[in-house]
Write the structure tokens for this entry.
Amino acid sequence: MAATEPLTRFTFTLPEGVAIGELPTEARSPSALGESGQLLIESEDVMPTLRALSAWATEHRYDIADLLVRRPALEDVYLGLTARPK
């Protein structure tokens, strides 16, 4: 039984007028988080993803004031280890 390790989560709101397709390659598989316009990106590669988002925002002069990076908590790791295979 192979357990999957929880991924680091990046959440933020896209700047107004910016489409998901404009995100850097490392961040192009986001999930929308409702009507608020916030995105969720899950990644194993924390620093490359963060670096890509930061460089992209800086290059285009976008302010991503609500960027939140959340590594898995102990509970997330436990749940990932004990999850039943689908």
